[in-house]
Amino acid sequence: MQQNSTGSFFLVGLILLHLNGCAAPVALTLLGVGAGVTTGTAVSYTMDGIAYRTFTAPLAQVERATLTALNDMGMEVDGAEKTDEGKAIKAKGADRQIEIELQAISSKTTRIRTVAKQGWFFKDRATATEIILQTERILGKA
Questions:
Q1: How far is the C-alpha of 65 from the C-alpha of 73, rounded, in Å?
Q2: Residues 75 and 28 both lie in one domain
Q3: Which helix (H) or strand (E) holds 90?
Protein backbone atom coordinates (compact mmCIF):
# COMPACT_ATOMS: atom_id res chain seq x y z
CA MET A 1 0.00 0.00 0.00
CA GLN A 2 1.58 3.30 -1.16
CA GLN A 3 1.41 6.31 1.14
CA ASN A 4 0.52 9.73 -0.31
CA SER A 5 3.33 12.09 0.77
CA THR A 6 1.44 15.24 -0.26
CA GLY A 7 -1.52 14.17 1.87
CA SER A 8 0.82 13.47 4.77
CA PHE A 9 2.38 16.95 4.50
CA PHE A 10 -1.09 18.51 4.39
CA LEU A 11 -2.24 16.58 7.46
CA VAL A 12 0.91 17.49 9.40
CA GLY A 13 0.44 21.13 8.34
CA LEU A 14 -3.12 21.18 9.66
CA ILE A 15 -2.03 19.69 12.96
CA LEU A 16 0.80 22.22 13.27
CA LEU A 17 -1.56 25.12 12.65
CA HIS A 18 -3.27 24.27 15.93
CA LEU A 19 -0.09 24.30 17.99
CA ASN A 20 0.55 27.28 20.26
CA GLY A 21 3.76 29.28 20.69
CA CYS A 22 6.83 29.28 18.49
CA ALA A 23 6.65 25.65 17.42
CA ALA A 24 4.02 26.20 14.72
CA PRO A 25 5.89 28.81 12.60
CA VAL A 26 9.14 26.87 12.83
CA ALA A 27 7.43 23.59 11.99
CA LEU A 28 5.56 25.15 9.06
CA THR A 29 8.83 26.54 7.73
CA LEU A 30 10.35 23.08 7.97
CA LEU A 31 7.28 21.65 6.28
CA GLY A 32 7.71 24.05 3.35
CA VAL A 33 11.41 23.22 3.03
CA GLY A 34 10.68 19.52 3.26
CA ALA A 35 8.07 19.79 0.54
CA GLY A 36 10.71 21.17 -1.85
CA VAL A 37 9.29 24.66 -2.28
CA THR A 38 11.04 26.55 -5.07
CA THR A 39 9.99 29.08 -7.65
CA GLY A 40 9.37 28.18 -11.26
CA THR A 41 12.85 29.33 -12.22
CA ALA A 42 14.69 26.91 -9.95
CA VAL A 43 15.71 29.36 -7.26
CA SER A 44 16.55 27.33 -4.17
CA TYR A 45 16.81 28.36 -0.53
CA THR A 46 18.69 27.42 2.58
CA MET A 47 16.88 27.07 5.90
CA ASP A 48 17.98 30.58 6.91
CA GLY A 49 16.52 32.44 3.92
CA ILE A 50 19.47 32.58 1.55
CA ALA A 51 18.54 32.25 -2.13
CA TYR A 52 20.84 30.68 -4.68
CA ARG A 53 20.91 29.51 -8.29
CA THR A 54 23.45 28.30 -10.83
CA PHE A 55 23.68 29.92 -14.27
CA THR A 56 25.35 28.56 -17.37
CA ALA A 57 27.30 31.76 -17.94
CA PRO A 58 30.83 32.92 -17.11
CA LEU A 59 31.41 34.76 -13.84
CA ALA A 60 32.12 38.12 -15.54
CA GLN A 61 28.82 37.96 -17.44
CA VAL A 62 26.83 37.07 -14.30
CA GLU A 63 28.58 39.88 -12.40
CA ARG A 64 27.62 42.46 -15.06
CA ALA A 65 24.03 41.19 -15.09
CA THR A 66 23.84 41.27 -11.28
CA LEU A 67 25.14 44.85 -11.11
CA THR A 68 22.64 45.88 -13.79
CA ALA A 69 19.83 44.15 -11.88
CA LEU A 70 20.77 45.97 -8.67
CA ASN A 71 20.82 49.27 -10.55
CA ASP A 72 17.45 48.54 -12.20
CA MET A 73 16.01 47.75 -8.74
CA GLY A 74 17.29 51.07 -7.34
CA MET A 75 19.78 49.38 -5.01
CA GLU A 76 22.94 51.25 -4.10
CA VAL A 77 26.06 49.14 -4.65
CA ASP A 78 28.48 49.58 -1.74
CA GLY A 79 31.28 47.68 -3.40
CA ALA A 80 32.54 44.51 -5.02
CA GLU A 81 35.66 42.58 -4.20
CA LYS A 82 37.40 39.53 -5.52
CA THR A 83 37.23 36.40 -3.36
CA ASP A 84 39.02 33.06 -3.59
CA GLU A 85 36.04 31.58 -5.41
CA GLY A 86 34.79 34.56 -7.42
CA LYS A 87 33.26 37.88 -6.36
CA ALA A 88 31.41 39.37 -3.38
CA ILE A 89 29.04 42.27 -3.94
CA LYS A 90 27.47 44.39 -1.19
CA ALA A 91 24.51 46.68 -1.77
CA LYS A 92 21.71 48.34 0.15
CA GLY A 93 18.15 49.38 -0.38
CA ALA A 94 15.94 51.17 2.15
CA ASP A 95 16.30 49.06 5.29
CA ARG A 96 17.97 46.04 3.63
CA GLN A 97 21.63 45.03 3.50
CA ILE A 98 22.26 42.91 0.41
CA GLU A 99 25.10 40.40 0.17
CA ILE A 100 25.76 38.57 -3.08
CA GLU A 101 28.39 35.93 -3.68
CA LEU A 102 29.31 34.82 -7.18
CA GLN A 103 31.21 31.55 -7.34
CA ALA A 104 32.83 30.29 -10.54
CA ILE A 105 31.94 26.60 -10.80
CA SER A 106 33.73 26.36 -14.15
CA SER A 107 34.73 28.78 -16.88
CA LYS A 108 31.14 28.68 -18.18
CA THR A 109 29.10 28.14 -15.00
CA THR A 110 28.51 30.52 -12.07
CA ARG A 111 26.57 30.08 -8.85
CA ILE A 112 24.88 33.16 -7.35
CA ARG A 113 24.01 33.29 -3.65
CA THR A 114 21.99 36.23 -2.33
CA VAL A 115 20.84 37.29 1.09
CA ALA A 116 18.84 40.40 1.96
CA LYS A 117 19.19 41.18 5.65
CA GLN A 118 16.59 43.28 7.39
CA GLY A 119 17.86 44.20 10.82
CA TRP A 120 19.77 41.75 13.01
CA PHE A 121 17.59 38.66 12.72
CA PHE A 122 15.33 38.83 9.69
CA LYS A 123 16.12 37.89 6.11
CA ASP A 124 13.97 39.00 3.20
CA ARG A 125 13.77 35.97 0.92
CA ALA A 126 11.53 37.77 -1.58
CA THR A 127 14.11 40.49 -2.25
CA ALA A 128 16.94 37.95 -2.46
CA THR A 129 14.87 35.98 -4.99
CA GLU A 130 14.01 39.05 -7.03
CA ILE A 131 17.70 39.92 -7.42
CA ILE A 132 18.29 36.45 -8.88
CA LEU A 133 15.21 36.69 -11.14
CA GLN A 134 16.29 40.10 -12.46
CA THR A 135 19.82 38.79 -13.04
CA GLU A 136 18.31 35.88 -14.99
CA ARG A 137 16.17 38.27 -17.05
CA ILE A 138 19.21 40.35 -17.98
CA LEU A 139 21.26 37.26 -18.82
CA GLY A 140 18.43 36.16 -21.13
CA LYS A 141 18.79 39.40 -23.08
CA ALA A 142 22.57 39.07 -23.42
A1: 12
A2: no
A3: strand 86-93
| CATH label of the domain that carries residue 77 | 3.30.160.110
| Rounded Cα–Cα distance for residues 54 and 62 (Å) | 10
pLDDT tens per residue, range 78-98: 999 999 999 999 999 988 999
Q: Is residue 106 part of a domain?
A: yes
Q: Are residues 98 and 61 in the same domain?
A: yes
Please, is 94 exposed, middle or buried when counting C-beta atoms within 10 Å of its C-beta (0-12, 13-18, 19+)?
exposed
- Please give the residue range of the domain that contains residue 95: 44-141
Do 111 and 135 touch, CB atoms closer than 8 A? no
32 close to 26: Cβ distance less than 8 angstroms: no
Residues 128 and 89 in one domain: yes
Q: Are residues 19 and 50 in the same domain?
A: no
CA–CA dist 81, 45 (Å, integer): 24
Query: What are 105-125's pLDDT values in tens digits?
Result: 999 999 999 999 988 888 889
pLDDT of 11 > 90? The answer is no
